[in-house]
User: What shape does this take?
Amino acid sequence: MSFLEKLKTLFKSDKVDISARFEFSREAISGTMSKFRKVFDIENSRTVGLKVLDSEKTEHFEARFKGLNKPSEGAIAMLLKHPQVVETYEHGVATSGVRYIVMEYIEGSGLNQMIQNRDSGLNGKRVSLMRQMALGVGAVHKAGFIHRDVCPRNFIVSADYNTAKLIDFGLTVPNEPPYRQPGNRTGTPLYMSPEIVRRRATDHRVDIFALGVTLYRLFVNEHPWSDGDATGKAALSFDTQAPTSILERRPRLNPAIASIIMQCLQPDPNKRPETAERVAQAISGIDKEDQ
Assistant: This one.
Protein backbone atom coordinates (compact mmCIF):
# COMPACT_ATOMS: atom_id res chain seq x y z
CA MET A 1 0.00 0.00 0.00
CA SER A 2 1.40 3.40 -0.98
CA PHE A 3 1.85 6.24 1.50
CA LEU A 4 -1.06 8.12 -0.12
CA GLU A 5 -3.36 5.11 0.18
CA LYS A 6 -2.37 4.70 3.84
CA LEU A 7 -3.29 8.34 4.46
CA LYS A 8 -6.67 7.86 2.75
CA THR A 9 -7.35 4.81 4.94
CA LEU A 10 -6.29 6.67 8.08
CA PHE A 11 -8.62 9.59 7.45
CA LYS A 12 -11.45 7.63 5.86
CA SER A 13 -14.84 8.81 7.11
CA ASP A 14 -17.40 6.36 8.45
CA LYS A 15 -20.06 8.43 6.72
CA VAL A 16 -21.54 7.14 3.48
CA ASP A 17 -22.12 9.14 0.34
CA ILE A 18 -25.54 7.69 -0.44
CA SER A 19 -25.83 9.50 -3.77
CA ALA A 20 -22.66 7.74 -4.96
CA ARG A 21 -23.32 4.33 -3.44
CA PHE A 22 -26.94 3.90 -4.50
CA GLU A 23 -28.72 4.08 -7.83
CA PHE A 24 -32.19 5.51 -7.28
CA SER A 25 -34.83 3.66 -9.27
CA ARG A 26 -38.07 5.17 -8.04
CA GLU A 27 -39.49 8.34 -6.51
CA ALA A 28 -39.31 8.70 -2.76
CA ILE A 29 -42.30 7.73 -0.64
CA SER A 30 -42.71 10.28 2.13
CA GLY A 31 -43.55 9.07 5.62
CA THR A 32 -44.18 10.96 8.84
CA MET A 33 -40.49 11.17 9.76
CA SER A 34 -38.62 9.89 6.71
CA LYS A 35 -38.45 9.21 2.99
CA PHE A 36 -38.18 5.72 1.54
CA ARG A 37 -36.86 4.68 -1.88
CA LYS A 38 -36.17 1.52 -3.81
CA VAL A 39 -32.48 1.67 -4.76
CA PHE A 40 -29.70 -0.49 -6.13
CA ASP A 41 -26.79 -0.88 -3.72
CA ILE A 42 -23.74 -0.69 -6.00
CA GLU A 43 -21.35 -1.76 -3.24
CA ASN A 44 -23.22 -5.01 -2.52
CA SER A 45 -24.83 -5.56 -5.94
CA ARG A 46 -28.41 -5.90 -4.72
CA THR A 47 -31.72 -4.06 -4.72
CA VAL A 48 -32.62 -2.72 -1.29
CA GLY A 49 -34.86 -0.23 0.43
CA LEU A 50 -33.23 3.01 1.57
CA LYS A 51 -34.83 5.04 4.33
CA VAL A 52 -33.56 8.57 4.93
CA LEU A 53 -34.71 10.12 8.18
CA ASP A 54 -35.94 13.68 8.58
CA SER A 55 -33.32 15.11 10.95
CA GLU A 56 -35.54 17.76 12.52
CA LYS A 57 -38.48 15.44 13.20
CA THR A 58 -36.24 12.65 14.44
CA GLU A 59 -34.41 14.94 16.84
CA HIS A 60 -37.72 16.32 18.11
CA PHE A 61 -38.94 12.80 18.89
CA GLU A 62 -35.67 11.66 20.46
CA ALA A 63 -35.67 14.77 22.68
CA ARG A 64 -38.54 13.19 24.63
CA PHE A 65 -36.04 10.67 25.99
CA LYS A 66 -33.13 12.94 26.74
CA GLY A 67 -30.73 11.35 29.20
CA LEU A 68 -32.06 7.82 28.73
CA ASN A 69 -29.52 6.74 26.11
CA LYS A 70 -32.31 5.50 23.85
CA PRO A 71 -31.07 3.43 20.88
CA SER A 72 -31.69 4.95 17.46
CA GLU A 73 -34.27 3.60 15.03
CA GLY A 74 -31.51 1.98 12.98
CA ALA A 75 -29.93 0.32 16.02
CA ILE A 76 -33.32 -1.05 17.11
CA ALA A 77 -34.13 -2.32 13.62
CA MET A 78 -30.80 -4.17 13.44
CA LEU A 79 -31.79 -6.17 16.54
CA LEU A 80 -35.08 -7.39 15.08
CA LYS A 81 -34.53 -10.70 13.30
CA HIS A 82 -37.72 -12.54 12.36
CA PRO A 83 -39.35 -13.72 9.11
CA GLN A 84 -42.30 -11.37 9.73
CA VAL A 85 -40.17 -8.30 10.37
CA VAL A 86 -38.43 -6.48 7.53
CA GLU A 87 -34.70 -7.23 7.69
CA THR A 88 -32.37 -4.31 8.27
CA TYR A 89 -28.88 -4.62 6.82
CA GLU A 90 -27.17 -1.44 7.92
CA HIS A 91 -27.66 2.03 9.38
CA GLY A 92 -25.48 5.07 9.72
CA VAL A 93 -24.94 8.72 8.93
CA ALA A 94 -24.56 10.00 5.38
CA THR A 95 -21.97 12.55 4.31
CA SER A 96 -24.81 15.08 4.17
CA GLY A 97 -25.42 14.52 7.88
CA VAL A 98 -28.74 12.69 7.61
CA ARG A 99 -29.31 9.28 9.15
CA TYR A 100 -30.06 6.42 6.79
CA ILE A 101 -31.21 2.80 7.09
CA VAL A 102 -30.67 0.08 4.48
CA MET A 103 -33.17 -2.78 4.51
CA GLU A 104 -34.59 -5.55 2.40
CA TYR A 105 -36.88 -4.42 -0.38
CA ILE A 106 -40.19 -6.28 -0.64
CA GLU A 107 -42.11 -6.30 -3.89
CA GLY A 108 -45.62 -5.64 -2.73
CA SER A 109 -47.90 -3.00 -1.26
CA GLY A 110 -48.72 -1.45 2.06
CA LEU A 111 -51.66 -3.14 3.77
CA ASN A 112 -53.36 0.22 4.21
CA GLN A 113 -53.50 0.72 0.45
CA MET A 114 -54.88 -2.79 -0.04
CA ILE A 115 -57.61 -2.19 2.53
CA GLN A 116 -58.55 1.17 1.04
CA ASN A 117 -58.72 -0.37 -2.43
CA ARG A 118 -60.69 -3.39 -1.12
CA ASP A 119 -58.08 -5.51 -2.86
CA SER A 120 -59.64 -8.83 -3.90
CA GLY A 121 -56.19 -10.46 -3.73
CA LEU A 122 -56.60 -10.57 0.04
CA ASN A 123 -59.50 -13.00 -0.26
CA GLY A 124 -58.53 -16.36 1.18
CA LYS A 125 -55.24 -14.93 2.48
CA ARG A 126 -56.40 -12.97 5.52
CA VAL A 127 -56.08 -15.73 8.13
CA SER A 128 -52.50 -16.46 7.15
CA LEU A 129 -51.65 -12.76 7.04
CA MET A 130 -53.27 -12.23 10.44
CA ARG A 131 -51.12 -14.94 11.96
CA GLN A 132 -47.96 -13.49 10.41
CA MET A 133 -48.79 -9.96 11.54
CA ALA A 134 -49.29 -11.12 15.12
CA LEU A 135 -45.98 -12.99 15.05
CA GLY A 136 -44.21 -9.91 13.69
CA VAL A 137 -45.50 -7.76 16.53
CA GLY A 138 -44.60 -10.53 18.98
CA ALA A 139 -41.04 -10.58 17.67
CA VAL A 140 -40.65 -6.89 18.52
CA HIS A 141 -41.88 -7.58 22.05
CA LYS A 142 -39.59 -10.59 22.48
CA ALA A 143 -36.65 -8.41 21.51
CA GLY A 144 -37.54 -6.07 24.37
CA PHE A 145 -39.30 -3.24 22.54
CA ILE A 146 -42.73 -1.65 22.05
CA HIS A 147 -43.44 -0.76 18.41
CA ARG A 148 -45.83 2.13 19.25
CA ASP A 149 -47.15 2.53 15.70
CA VAL A 150 -48.78 -0.75 14.67
CA CYS A 151 -51.24 0.08 11.87
CA PRO A 152 -51.96 -1.11 8.30
CA ARG A 153 -49.51 1.42 6.89
CA ASN A 154 -46.69 -0.35 8.71
CA PHE A 155 -47.25 -3.79 7.25
CA ILE A 156 -46.00 -4.68 3.77
CA VAL A 157 -47.76 -7.53 1.98
CA SER A 158 -45.86 -9.31 -0.79
CA ALA A 159 -47.10 -9.17 -4.37
CA ASP A 160 -48.39 -12.76 -4.15
CA TYR A 161 -50.29 -11.92 -0.92
CA ASN A 162 -48.56 -14.76 0.91
CA THR A 163 -46.28 -12.79 3.22
CA ALA A 164 -46.77 -9.90 5.64
CA LYS A 165 -43.89 -8.07 7.32
CA LEU A 166 -43.85 -5.38 9.99
CA ILE A 167 -41.90 -2.24 9.13
CA ASP A 168 -40.99 1.22 10.49
CA PHE A 169 -39.46 1.48 13.94
CA GLY A 170 -39.30 5.26 14.08
CA LEU A 171 -41.47 5.42 17.22
CA THR A 172 -40.26 2.17 18.76
CA VAL A 173 -38.96 2.33 22.33
CA PRO A 174 -37.43 -0.13 24.79
CA ASN A 175 -40.00 -1.91 26.96
CA GLU A 176 -38.50 -0.45 30.12
CA PRO A 177 -40.03 1.69 32.93
CA PRO A 178 -38.62 5.08 31.81
CA TYR A 179 -40.26 4.65 28.39
CA ARG A 180 -43.61 3.48 29.77
CA GLN A 181 -44.33 6.62 31.75
CA PRO A 182 -47.49 8.66 31.01
CA GLY A 183 -47.20 11.39 28.42
CA ASN A 184 -45.65 9.75 25.34
CA ARG A 185 -48.66 10.40 23.12
CA THR A 186 -47.24 9.22 19.82
CA GLY A 187 -48.59 6.93 17.13
CA THR A 188 -51.35 6.93 14.52
CA PRO A 189 -54.42 8.50 16.17
CA LEU A 190 -57.13 5.97 15.26
CA TYR A 191 -54.91 3.08 16.43
CA MET A 192 -53.91 4.55 19.79
CA SER A 193 -55.02 2.62 22.85
CA PRO A 194 -57.01 4.42 25.56
CA GLU A 195 -54.02 4.48 27.89
CA ILE A 196 -52.03 6.44 25.30
CA VAL A 197 -54.90 8.83 24.57
CA ARG A 198 -55.52 9.41 28.30
CA ARG A 199 -51.79 9.83 28.98
CA ARG A 200 -51.56 6.89 31.36
CA ALA A 201 -48.69 4.47 31.91
CA THR A 202 -48.24 2.06 29.01
CA ASP A 203 -46.64 -1.26 28.13
CA HIS A 204 -46.46 -3.63 25.15
CA ARG A 205 -50.23 -4.08 25.21
CA VAL A 206 -50.68 -0.77 23.40
CA ASP A 207 -49.44 -2.72 20.37
CA ILE A 208 -52.01 -5.47 21.03
CA PHE A 209 -54.78 -2.88 20.88
CA ALA A 210 -53.40 -1.36 17.69
CA LEU A 211 -53.03 -4.83 16.19
CA GLY A 212 -56.69 -5.47 16.96
CA VAL A 213 -57.76 -2.32 15.13
CA THR A 214 -55.53 -3.29 12.21
CA LEU A 215 -56.94 -6.83 12.03
CA TYR A 216 -60.50 -5.53 12.28
CA ARG A 217 -59.87 -3.40 9.21
CA LEU A 218 -58.17 -6.31 7.45
CA PHE A 219 -61.35 -8.39 7.71
CA VAL A 220 -64.08 -5.77 7.23
CA ASN A 221 -62.23 -2.75 5.73
CA GLU A 222 -63.93 -0.37 8.16
CA HIS A 223 -62.72 0.97 11.49
CA PRO A 224 -64.20 -0.38 14.76
CA TRP A 225 -65.16 3.17 15.73
CA SER A 226 -65.37 6.24 13.53
CA ASP A 227 -63.50 6.44 10.22
CA GLY A 228 -64.22 10.08 9.59
CA ASP A 229 -61.86 11.75 12.03
CA ALA A 230 -58.12 11.13 11.80
CA THR A 231 -57.18 13.98 14.14
CA GLY A 232 -57.29 11.83 17.24
CA LYS A 233 -60.53 13.20 18.71
CA ALA A 234 -62.37 9.97 17.84
CA ALA A 235 -59.82 8.05 19.91
CA LEU A 236 -61.18 9.76 23.03
CA SER A 237 -64.24 7.51 22.76
CA PHE A 238 -62.30 4.24 22.69
CA ASP A 239 -62.81 3.69 26.42
CA THR A 240 -66.31 5.15 26.66
CA GLN A 241 -68.01 3.74 23.57
CA ALA A 242 -67.93 0.06 22.62
CA PRO A 243 -66.59 -0.76 19.15
CA THR A 244 -69.02 -2.11 16.59
CA SER A 245 -68.98 -5.91 16.81
CA ILE A 246 -67.01 -7.33 13.92
CA LEU A 247 -69.70 -9.99 13.51
CA GLU A 248 -72.26 -7.25 12.96
CA ARG A 249 -70.31 -6.21 9.88
CA ARG A 250 -69.29 -9.70 8.81
CA PRO A 251 -71.75 -12.20 10.30
CA ARG A 252 -70.17 -15.32 8.79
CA LEU A 253 -66.65 -14.58 10.05
CA ASN A 254 -65.15 -17.51 11.93
CA PRO A 255 -66.10 -16.97 15.62
CA ALA A 256 -62.55 -17.68 16.84
CA ILE A 257 -61.18 -14.93 14.61
CA ALA A 258 -63.91 -12.53 15.66
CA SER A 259 -63.43 -13.28 19.35
CA ILE A 260 -59.67 -12.70 19.49
CA ILE A 261 -59.88 -9.47 17.47
CA MET A 262 -62.56 -8.07 19.78
CA GLN A 263 -60.47 -9.08 22.80
CA CYS A 264 -57.60 -7.02 21.45
CA LEU A 265 -59.91 -3.98 21.42
CA GLN A 266 -60.67 -4.10 25.14
CA PRO A 267 -60.14 -0.65 26.72
CA ASP A 268 -58.66 -2.32 29.80
CA PRO A 269 -55.21 -3.68 28.86
CA ASN A 270 -55.62 -6.45 31.44
CA LYS A 271 -58.49 -7.87 29.40
CA ARG A 272 -56.52 -7.98 26.15
CA PRO A 273 -54.44 -11.01 25.11
CA GLU A 274 -51.24 -10.89 27.14
CA THR A 275 -49.02 -11.44 24.09
CA ALA A 276 -49.22 -11.13 20.33
CA GLU A 277 -48.32 -14.82 20.10
CA ARG A 278 -51.60 -15.63 21.83
CA VAL A 279 -53.41 -13.84 19.04
CA ALA A 280 -51.68 -16.13 16.55
CA GLN A 281 -52.33 -19.20 18.70
CA ALA A 282 -56.05 -18.39 18.96
CA ILE A 283 -56.49 -19.09 15.27
CA SER A 284 -54.22 -22.13 15.12
CA GLY A 285 -55.65 -24.69 12.73
CA ILE A 286 -58.03 -22.22 11.08
CA ASP A 287 -57.53 -21.68 7.38
CA LYS A 288 -60.89 -20.23 6.25
CA GLU A 289 -62.17 -16.79 7.15
CA ASP A 290 -65.87 -17.64 7.23
CA GLN A 291 -67.84 -20.47 8.77
